[in-house]
Amino acid sequence: MAACIDDSRNQNMNNSFSSYPNRCQIKNSLCSLIHIMKPNSSNLVSYKTIDSSKLVLNDGDEDYAWLKIREEAKSNAKQEPILSKYYCSLILSHHSLESALANHLAEKLSNSSLASDVLFEVFFSVLDQDREIKTAIRDDLKGVKDRDPACISYVHCFLNFKGFLACQAHRVAHKLWSQGRTIPAYLIQSRVSEVFAVDIHPGAKIGHGILLDHATGIVIGETAVIGDNVTILHNVTLGGTGKVTGDRHPKVGDGVMIGAGTQILGNVKIGEGAKIGAGSVVLKEVPPNATSVGNPARLVGGNDRAKM
């Protein structure tokens, strides 16, 4: 049995990517062909400076998000030549944002018994076909860059922000879940939880422009719904009370900010534009544009006449 396993691994290494034409074929000569290190190379200016306000992909448009990421990757590789192969393999050798993202997630979430090639095919098959997810990815990139002062560039977010990566992996898992493919959906959830320390049930519905800031310790339950442009910091739980079944998790409106360590429990509504202070325990509805803090949470601003 051991010999069989060893042989299969060796064959997989020898034929890396051969079954997946959409995945990049990384070779040492490839980076040299891109000429990213030549200061006067035309390749360095082959992509015009991209207006970051146009990252959303519309029918007939150029993919501004992908062009911006490539532009930044080339600039970073020029500044740090030692990282040129890194940027080549993860960004510059790919034909699309979806291919690069599928590859990056596959490499991050694979292990000795779950090959990156298999994960790549699962991720790419969803990312390349689902228009809604394509738009959400770009909205998330812009949301992170606009609202997180620690984010220095789009390529920085794409490669290094585990909250962004966990959110995109969840989008694929949710699509599989909605198709009745619960086994791979749960598998992705499990690997994301292990690797990124972010546990989002594949049944949870998440909007666009999401920022999972720092992200460690975030838990989101099966029937939770999160609107657009929501910011969630680390160690936040959108969970149940443990007393009911069915629809049992929070519903978070657009533009909500949830501070670190907050616990929102039960099928409660958090109104649009509300802010939840760090460490709060929320068990009742929070009105739109209100600020809620404490354990148990109480209103301190915004719609301060509303009852919790």
TrEMBL record:
Keywords, alphabetical: Acyltransferase, Amino-acid biosynthesis, Transferase
InterPro entries listed in its UniProt record: Hexapep (IPR001451), Hexapep_transf_CS (IPR018357), LbH_SAT (IPR045304), Ser_AcTrfase_N (IPR010493), Ser_AcTrfase_N_sf (IPR042122), Ser_O-AcTrfase (IPR005881), Serine_acetyltransferase (IPR053376), Trimer_LpxA-like_sf (IPR011004)
EC number, as in UniProt: 2.3.1.30
GO cellular component, as recorded: cytoplasm
PANTHER family reported for this sequence: SERINE ACETYLTRANSFERASE (PTHR42811)
NCBIfam families the record matches: cysE, EPS_EpsC
Name assigned to this protein: serine O-acetyltransferase
Originating species: Actinidia chinensis var. chinensis (Chinese soft-hair kiwi)
